[in-house]
Amino acid sequence: MATSSQMLAAARTNLGLRGRPNTITRAYASRNGDAFLNAAWCDMAVTYWARKSGATSAVLPKGDRAYTVWHAQDFQAAKRWYTGTKANVDKAKPGDVIFFDWGGSDSVGAIDHVGVVEKTLGGGRVQTIEGNTGDACARRVRSYVDIAGYGRPAYTAPKPLKPTARYPFKASTLIRKGWNDSEGVRVVQKRLNELGSRLVVDGDFGPRTETAVRAFQKKKRLVVDGIVGPKTWAKLFG
Prior knowledge:
Layout: H1 4-12, H2 23-32, H3 42-53, H4 56-59, H5 68-77, E1 81-83, H6 86-89, E2 97-100, E3 113-122, E4 125-130, E5 138-143, E6 147-151, H7 163-166, H8 182-194, H9 207-219, H10 230-237
Antiparallel strand pairs: 1-6, 2-3, 2-6, 3-4, 4-5
Helix pairs in contact: 1-3, 2-3
């Protein structure tokens, strides 16, 4: 079993992929027949990422899917389905498999498209990674208006992080916006949450994490620059 972070890492490797047949459709066709080589590949992409990351049983409870309606029904049957209301979309988590109806309904039978939640933005919006969006794999920002619902895979929970043991912080290390060491960012996000923040622990140092760091620095009378350097680290972990 895999974590949601591993599922998203697999999805990010295909960003920029275009056209068909492609790596994703060929992999799906090798198991399910050549008819899928040039077919719509949004759900084939989710299947590919699940298999690549080791999250097959969590993301694909009834096996490979290319048809989005059946995939959503799999989550319904597993009682892991959330209708696409604004309130529910604001509770979506990274790694959730999110389904769209361009007609604006929450009907599973009307689903047109699927992707994976990368982050929740608030206001009924999410940032996603999707295959076959404009015949490419790309990031999108989607509103609850177009979201029929989402399935929550039973991912393996990430192991607890111990900053001093598993992520020894060096004086030269600066954890800042755009930082690409997901473990280091997760350490900071988790600690900020322990101190009262409400961040998604996703390893992505985005605007919300930067805002939380700045608020912490202000509270501790540090230089408010949104960067976790040695002084901020020392105050965070003592």
